[in-house]
Amino acid sequence: MVLETSEKGKKSNNLTINHQNIRSLNKKKDELNIMLQENQGRPHLICLSEHHMGKEEMKDFSFPGYKLVNCFCRETYSKGGVCILARNYIIYQAINLNKLCNEKVFEISAVTIHTCSTKVILCCVYRSPSENPNYFLQHLEKH
From CA 32, how far away is CA 123, in angstroms rounded? Predict the structure, then answer.
Protein backbone atom coordinates (compact mmCIF):
# COMPACT_ATOMS: atom_id res chain seq x y z
CA MET A 1 0.00 0.00 0.00
CA VAL A 2 1.36 3.39 -0.95
CA LEU A 3 0.65 5.91 1.80
CA GLU A 4 1.53 9.04 -0.14
CA THR A 5 3.14 10.43 -3.25
CA SER A 6 5.86 13.05 -2.92
CA GLU A 7 5.97 16.36 -4.80
CA LYS A 8 8.33 14.72 -7.33
CA GLY A 9 5.83 11.92 -7.98
CA LYS A 10 7.78 9.23 -6.12
CA LYS A 11 5.74 6.74 -4.16
CA SER A 12 6.46 6.52 -0.46
CA ASN A 13 5.58 4.42 2.56
CA ASN A 14 6.09 7.28 5.01
CA LEU A 15 3.65 6.94 7.86
CA THR A 16 2.68 10.12 9.69
CA ILE A 17 1.35 9.83 13.24
CA ASN A 18 0.01 12.58 15.49
CA HIS A 19 -0.61 12.30 19.23
CA GLN A 20 -2.71 14.83 21.12
CA ASN A 21 -3.87 14.94 24.71
CA ILE A 22 -7.22 16.31 23.57
CA ARG A 23 -8.82 16.77 27.02
CA SER A 24 -12.38 16.28 25.72
CA LEU A 25 -12.85 15.37 22.11
CA ASN A 26 -16.36 16.80 22.04
CA LYS A 27 -15.06 20.23 23.10
CA LYS A 28 -12.05 20.22 20.74
CA LYS A 29 -13.52 18.54 17.65
CA ASP A 30 -13.63 21.80 15.65
CA GLU A 31 -10.01 22.67 16.51
CA LEU A 32 -8.86 19.18 15.51
CA ASN A 33 -10.78 19.45 12.24
CA ILE A 34 -9.08 22.78 11.40
CA MET A 35 -5.65 21.31 12.14
CA LEU A 36 -6.34 18.33 9.88
CA GLN A 37 -7.62 20.51 7.03
CA GLU A 38 -4.46 22.61 7.22
CA ASN A 39 -2.32 19.46 7.00
CA GLN A 40 -4.10 18.21 3.84
CA GLY A 41 -4.50 14.48 4.39
CA ARG A 42 -1.95 14.13 7.12
CA PRO A 43 -1.47 12.62 9.57
CA HIS A 44 -2.29 9.07 8.54
CA LEU A 45 -2.99 8.12 12.15
CA ILE A 46 -4.13 10.13 15.16
CA CYS A 47 -3.73 9.00 18.75
CA LEU A 48 -5.90 10.86 21.26
CA SER A 49 -5.63 10.62 25.01
CA GLU A 50 -8.23 11.93 27.47
CA HIS A 51 -11.03 11.84 24.90
CA HIS A 52 -13.58 11.89 27.80
CA MET A 53 -16.14 9.80 25.91
CA GLY A 54 -18.06 6.66 26.85
CA LYS A 55 -18.43 3.50 24.76
CA GLU A 56 -21.83 4.52 23.41
CA GLU A 57 -20.57 7.94 22.32
CA MET A 58 -17.58 6.36 20.61
CA LYS A 59 -19.79 3.98 18.62
CA ASP A 60 -21.37 6.97 16.90
CA PHE A 61 -18.15 8.95 16.54
CA SER A 62 -17.04 9.93 13.06
CA PHE A 63 -14.58 12.40 11.64
CA PRO A 64 -14.23 13.52 7.99
CA GLY A 65 -11.65 11.36 6.20
CA TYR A 66 -10.92 9.24 9.28
CA LYS A 67 -12.37 6.22 11.00
CA LEU A 68 -12.14 5.16 14.61
CA VAL A 69 -9.98 2.02 14.59
CA ASN A 70 -9.69 1.28 18.31
CA CYS A 71 -10.42 2.83 21.68
CA PHE A 72 -10.53 2.37 25.42
CA CYS A 73 -13.27 4.13 27.38
CA ARG A 74 -13.53 4.39 31.13
CA GLU A 75 -16.54 2.78 32.78
CA THR A 76 -16.04 3.69 36.45
CA TYR A 77 -14.35 7.09 36.44
CA SER A 78 -15.15 10.09 34.27
CA LYS A 79 -12.87 11.62 31.65
CA GLY A 80 -9.72 9.78 30.50
CA GLY A 81 -9.71 7.22 27.71
CA VAL A 82 -7.55 6.71 24.62
CA CYS A 83 -8.36 6.14 20.97
CA ILE A 84 -6.75 5.79 17.56
CA LEU A 85 -8.12 7.22 14.32
CA ALA A 86 -6.85 6.29 10.85
CA ARG A 87 -7.34 7.70 7.37
CA ASN A 88 -10.15 5.82 5.63
CA TYR A 89 -7.78 3.97 3.27
CA ILE A 90 -5.39 2.65 5.95
CA ILE A 91 -5.37 -1.14 6.32
CA TYR A 92 -5.36 -2.07 9.99
CA GLN A 93 -6.27 -4.69 12.55
CA ALA A 94 -7.43 -3.64 16.02
CA ILE A 95 -5.65 -5.22 18.99
CA ASN A 96 -7.92 -5.73 21.99
CA LEU A 97 -5.92 -4.81 25.09
CA ASN A 98 -8.87 -3.75 27.27
CA LYS A 99 -8.16 -6.57 29.75
CA LEU A 100 -4.78 -4.93 30.45
CA CYS A 101 -6.32 -1.53 31.18
CA ASN A 102 -6.65 -0.19 34.68
CA GLU A 103 -8.57 3.10 34.76
CA LYS A 104 -6.39 6.08 35.66
CA VAL A 105 -3.32 3.83 36.07
CA PHE A 106 -2.79 2.28 32.61
CA GLU A 107 -5.08 2.97 29.65
CA ILE A 108 -4.05 1.61 26.25
CA SER A 109 -5.39 1.22 22.73
CA ALA A 110 -3.46 -0.46 19.90
CA VAL A 111 -3.64 -1.38 16.21
CA THR A 112 -1.48 -3.17 13.67
CA ILE A 113 -0.99 -1.09 10.52
CA HIS A 114 -0.26 -2.96 7.30
CA THR A 115 1.86 -1.30 4.62
CA CYS A 116 3.25 -2.92 1.46
CA SER A 117 6.61 -3.55 3.12
CA THR A 118 5.93 -4.05 6.82
CA LYS A 119 3.58 -4.16 9.76
CA VAL A 120 3.65 -1.51 12.45
CA ILE A 121 2.06 -1.83 15.88
CA LEU A 122 0.87 1.52 17.19
CA CYS A 123 -0.12 1.99 20.84
CA CYS A 124 -1.70 4.99 22.50
CA VAL A 125 -1.09 4.89 26.27
CA TYR A 126 -2.30 7.19 29.04
CA ARG A 127 -1.67 7.51 32.79
CA SER A 128 -3.59 9.99 34.90
CA PRO A 129 -1.25 12.51 36.58
CA SER A 130 -3.17 11.97 39.84
CA GLU A 131 -1.96 8.36 40.04
CA ASN A 132 1.41 7.12 41.25
CA PRO A 133 3.75 6.77 38.25
CA ASN A 134 5.29 3.67 39.84
CA TYR A 135 1.94 1.86 39.46
CA PHE A 136 2.01 2.69 35.76
CA LEU A 137 5.59 1.41 35.35
CA GLN A 138 4.81 -1.79 37.29
CA HIS A 139 1.78 -2.39 35.08
CA LEU A 140 3.80 -1.72 31.93
CA GLU A 141 6.58 -4.12 32.97
CA LYS A 142 4.11 -6.84 33.95
CA HIS A 143 2.47 -6.87 30.52
Answer: 20
